[in-house]
Amino acid sequence: QVQLVESGGGVVQPGRSLRLSCAASGFTFSDYAMHWVRRAPGKGLEWVAVMSYDGTRKYYADSVKGRFTISRDNSKNTLFLQMNSLRPEDTAVHYCATEGVGYFGSGSYAYHYMDVWGKGTTVTVSS
Amino acid sequence: EIVLTQSPGTLSLSPGERATLSCRASQSVNSNYLAWYQQRPGQAPRLLIYGASSRATGIPDRFSGSGSGTDFTLTISRLEPEDFAVYYCQLYGSSPPYTFGQGTKLEIK
Question: Which pLDDT score, from 0 to 100, does residue B84 have?
Answer without folding.
Answer: 97
